[in-house]
Amino acid sequence: MEPVSAAIAQKALTASEEDYLKCLYVLEQSQNGPVHTNDVAAYMHTKASSATDMVQRLSKKGYVHYRAYHGATLSEQGTEAAVQVVRRHRLWETFLHRKLRFRWDEVHALADQLEHIASPVLTDRLDAFLDYPKYDPHGEPIPSATGAVNDPRNPVPLSTLQVGNIGRIVAVSDHSQDFLKYLETTNLILGSRIEVNRLQAFDGSMHVQLAVREVVLSEKVTERLLIEVLH
Amino acid sequence: MEPVSAAIAQKALTASEEDYLKCLYVLEQSQNGPVHTNDVAAYMHTKASSATDMVQRLSKKGYVHYRAYHGATLSEQGTEAAVQVVRRHRLWETFLHRKLRFRWDEVHALADQLEHIASPVLTDRLDAFLDYPKYDPHGEPIPSATGAVNDPRNPVPLSTLQVGNIGRIVAVSDHSQDFLKYLETTNLILGSRIEVNRLQAFDGSMHVQLAVREVVLSEKVTERLLIEVLH
DNA sequence: GCCGCTGTTTAAGCGTGTCTAAAAATCAAC
DNA sequence: GTTGATTTTTAGACACGCTTAAACAGCGGC
Fold first, then answer.
1. Beta carbons of B110 and B103 less than 8 angstroms apart
2. Are B214 and B167 spatial neighbours (Cβ–Cβ below 8 Å)?
3. How many CA atoms lie within 13 A of A148 on its CB side?
């Protein structure tokens, strides 16, 4: 019926497929090299078999390069699709926070549902309505309509800094309610100036200067705090 | 594990179940008496077997009273659920129109997706953000958070008016792009004053006065235009 | 009262996305 | 290199929501 468009048109992704693409995108960023199906399963809170299933499906559809037992990497097409999902997610988070006054620890779950409405027009109108925000409420960069993601702050995990380094908390890589609530009680707020006082090699914990007081942060925390290094 | 809440808690509805509840609600309003599965199938653009399937499922779950071959009516619980879906739908339509500048013929399709995000907090925040709107872009009343729907305008289809009656177009019951675009080209706009000049018994068409000019409207149109009668 | 038309329901099957349990491949240790 | 623990994949099953095709109920005409 539609021989030309049929060859070009990509069958729309299901919500689940989009979730997995987003997951692969995030894990690919934080790791280097291919993503293992077990990591995918852990991230998605499902079983390894489900992860394998979906990775194979996405591979058949051309979104993922996959070799059994050796992990998956996003294809160009897969990366493009994943970035669009991330864009929608972060724009909705920004909307929920700025316009509907949700706290930054509340927006993630709702955005996970809103992100699957795949209307380019809607996304772009939302972007304009929010006045083209650069970062979401967690400080993560919002990809542009063309899929470009650039972050002049070059954030790195706090865990990679050395004693004496000074920086600014610009983002968090874990958006779970538990983690964000912990940050608030500890007064670790986006924009805070932070200085590394001492490292504990034993358990990877870190003593940092935060305004007038010193706090001890576990490795689990320092891995999830993203810092713009000042010097 | 949770003996008490298990007895009370309603398993969440799927998007599809919500769509059917909304459909049943709308059809129950426009018809009188039980809704036939064929009407459901027609409205949902699916097959009769699918409609039967879903009506039976909703009946088992207690949302619908159903007698085979005799149609379905919403239970109290079903009406309540349907009204909430309608509330979300109309709030999102209002958001899309007022804030994102979508035309009234564009909002329906997007709202059909947004309406399934069933977070009472989100819905109420959106309501507040829009300053508690009473009507959606098609002039239909937006149910309150408690599920109350009251419309002091008492709109009736234009097709029920008599020669000499005068009224105001306050809503449309068909939200399809085709119909709404037709209305715009004919200058039939919400708020317009309208007077019935002549009825054509033959085909049910109607000659009406619209500002300085007279227009002829087919029965299909007069059934879908909702009028607040002035006298 | 029977016939046939229309409307409705059942039966069977398909695709998606999930699960558990079992089999297979990989990798590190010796 | 073979072995054993670990990771990964396959196989089989299930719920949901849809389809087509076939059986069935209700009702008017005669």
1. no
2. no
3. 6
pLDDT tens profile A61-92: 999 999 988 999 999 999 999 999 999 999 99
pTM: predicted TM-score of the whole model, two decimal places: 0.90
Angle between helices A76-98 and A107-114 (to 10 degrees): 130
Chain A CB within 8 Å of residue B95 CB = no
Which bases along strand D come within 7 Å of a protein CB atom?
A: 7-12, 16-22, 25-26
Nearest-Cα distance to chain B for A34, in Å, is 34
User: What is the amino acid identity at position B102?
Assistant: F
Residue numbers 56-115 of B with CB closer than 7 A to any atom of strand C: 56, 66, 68-71
Nearest residue to C8 via alpha carbon and C1': B69
End-to-end CA gap in chain A: 62
Condensed to tens digits (0 to 9), the pLDDT of residues A39-52 reads: 999 999 999 999 99
Tell me the C-alpha to C-alpha distance, in Å, between residue A23 and each of A4, A82, A95, B24, B83.
32, 8, 22, 38, 35
| Residue matched to tokens 């909307």 | A95
Pick out residues 38-97 of chain A having their CB under 7 A from any atom of nucleic acid strand D: 38-39, 48-49, 51-53, 55-56, 66, 68-69, 71
Ramachandran quadrant class, B164 (left: phi over 0; alpha: psi -120 to 50; beta: rest)? left
